[in-house]
Amino acid sequence: MSEPTPEPPPIPPVGVKLSTDTEERSYGIRARVRWTDPVSKKRMIRTSIVPDEAAAESFFNQLRKASVNGVDPEMKLSDYVTSIGPRWMRGLDPTSTADNYHAGLRLRVLPALGHLTVASITAGQIDRTIDDWETRYSASVIKNSIAPLVRVLDEAVRDDLIGVNPAKNRSRRSLHKNALQLNTANDSPRAHAIPDLPTLLKLAADCAAVHQCYSDHIMLCALLAARGSEIAGLRVGDVDWKNRIVTIERQTYPGAGGLVTKQTKGRESRPVPILQPLEEVLRRLIDRREPDAPLLRGPRGGVLTTATVRDATHWDTLVTELGLPNLTRHGLRHTGATWIADAGVPLHVLQKILGHKSLETTRQYLHPDHRQLASAAKQANAFLANWSPSGPPSSQNRPRKSHRHESPTF
Known about the structure:
The chain is α+β, with helices and mostly antiparallel strands.
């Protein structure tokens, strides 16, 4: 049976009058602070055993400061999080981002740093904590842990517990990277994509052996370069055969209290061209169905999530047997994005298809096109072939300069 959590020491309410005294003991000095609670009218006492008068005065000053802003300067991080409640989540989407941040705070931040006083937490301690996380968690999980820590310590700055947020710059740290590993091929989303169409079709066929809906989910995610939640949010009317596009404008996923349907991550609808390998799937899914009907549902009519697909298809075993052990469900989106990029679609069009706010995010899907490099080498070699031992290419191959002076015409 676990022991009950001890009550945190009382904090003087804002504006309350404090009385202080000290008493010498054989083991040090007992510093005592007393006040009357303005609500309950109870007499409250807080004591601390300190080595000398200077330490006693420091203790008194801490509680005097607490009576000014209502926060104990020696409060532990875990107690501080409890005291501010959901204040640190202001402005977050409660159905998605807030859930992920709250999980990161509860499962990783507080177990690692919750026992420390807020004022004692340093950037070095946070860095070492992140170093440990990097050995166990993915970059996205770590980011969802750093972000709530930054927000909580921002509140501590506002409460005058600390002067500077030590986690602030940690949010821009390059996770799972060092100076010798930046920009390697494995950091690119291309490294997490399916290499070719036959492999995708093989994966879809293996999923169809479990149920056709899982195969359709695989094909839709890959060939629309879409997230699993966006596929769950598609409706029959989003398929436009006249213009041969599928409009992605919403996502559906499990959230706090049940299913959540809202705008896409970029908060904008985006048109995605219908690729030929996807035609048969789309025609079958929309056949004789109402425009508002969900495009795809699970075996029992429920929403398909990436977790559902993982469990039902035994995903890890499936992709390992396919020779792609590191392929995730999100890797299906990377697959479509890289194939569209390799087809020569202009960067700004690819950005629109993927719904990226930043062009630099889209640029990660571009392949270093060796054909362009070969073409550049061919042109350079042609130029160098005309170079004689005595000098640059002959004047026959160089543009002639005109020495005529002509009057400009208007």
